[in-house]
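As described in the Methods, two query proteins were run sequentially through the folding procedure within a single session, without resetting any intermediate state between them. The first query and its resulting structure tokens are shown here.
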Amino acid sequence: MNNQFLFIINDIRKNKVYFLWNIIQISIVCVLFSIILQSVFEYRDVKCKFDEITEQSEIYMFRDETTDEKFEELLNDENKLHQLAELYDSVQKSVEASHGDILSFTANSNKRFYMSEELAKDIAQTWEVPEETRDSLDMISVTENFFQIYQLKIEGDMTQLKKSSKEKIPAIVGSSFQKMYQLHDIIYDSNDLAYEIVGFLEEGAYYIAPGERREPVYLDQFILKLSEIDPEDSVDLLDYFVTTYYIIKGNDFMEKVVEKSRDKDLMDLSINNFSFQMNAITEDIKDELILNGSIMAILFIFCLVAMTGNVLQFISDAKREFAVHMMCGASKGAVIFRIIMQMWCIYISSAVFVILIKKASKTTFMSLVFSAVYILLLCLLPIWILKRQTIQTLYKKSYE
């Protein structure tokens, strides 16, 4: 058996170029297959959550089409600020007067959490943080019903989220923070403002923001705090209209808001909805899947032809050597083992590369199972060829 492994190592050394090329091919196929599966699973999960939320109503959002010049005016004109506050107040009164027919929630991710030096050091030691974001974290200001709408499970006490004070701000953080902190620990931002951790989200928690990005927003490394709108802050008011979503059966209420805003020469708003955005996302994902699937299919066919050709070439070149070994007492099984072990060495090497690139996940595992089935079928080729050959035919064909 030890001799067999020495033969395998020697075969790999002699054919190292083909060996490395096959590893690269299988690795690329597996990575692409994993990306395709991840896109499919993500879209399926998002679609299911979207269908649950919009089962009886639609989700609408305002789309801001305000020019930069008008935006500057809104930020600096006290009269415009007063009118914006009145518009905000009228929206709030309409929501309250609807008695549940209009359900709104806010998810404002326009601001970042700039960390204290100590927190930034802890994060850098625990997470892989891109260099451009090492001084800050993603942060979302949300309304309390945000967690219920997106069915986010929390370890902790949700009631503590509303107990804000000048000394500390309650915050719910993503699951990645559990590697460093416990409930009621305090973290500080760059201005030494204290945030108390009152809850942890479960791993993989996400929300959907079609108006913001196509992919689901995963919250593992996010800080979430309760949204508070200051009616005397123009930035807060402007953010409110583009980060608040409304779950309603019809958009008559929102059309009135758009009309009021335009009549008073405030924001140039229009209305968008999740269904429209999700349809656009679906088309984008289909195009992406077709492109990645086509590339993967071409590479897989090329890989199939190349590896099959390499196996046939190796068997053809080594027929005389196989015949001599069999004359000296080696069995056909030992010769077949020598050939198929090279294929599994290629598979194991490519699996290591794929795991390093895509990390251990369900989609990575499925792509590796796919390639393992391919290698398993390819192993039938040397078995089929050598089972039909005798020592004499192998020896004779080595001279053809």
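Immediately afterward, the second query was submitted; its sequence and tokens are:
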Amino acid sequence: MRSFSHTIKKYLEMVGRKATVVKENGGEDEFFAVMEQTWKRNKTNFEDRAMKPGRVYNEYCEILCPFDINLKQYGKNDIFIIEGEKYELCRAEQVKAYGKIQFYRGIIKKIREADNSVFG
């Protein structure tokens, strides 16, 4: 049976964005991935909300990675950097066909940095 994992990886390198994962233990992984914001499908669930401490932003994206980048190995403290923006992994799964892993799919959430100049 034919595996499409290498073909998928080739197309991810052609159309994907460069992603770097800075691991909690200090290591880094680099690969190409395709990313799409999930709010485009259901915007009302992801609108900003005003809270007492400030605004809450729910910016989630779906990410597709090649078969040789195991998204399931990353934890909450590993930071994904894509086009200068930081994200944390919320969920990951492998996509199998013909009994082999073809690619990985996950949900990542944008990390908003606190503005230290607010109080001073």
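Residues 30 and 94 are 18 Å apart (CA to CA). We note this only descriptively and draw no conclusion about the first query from it.
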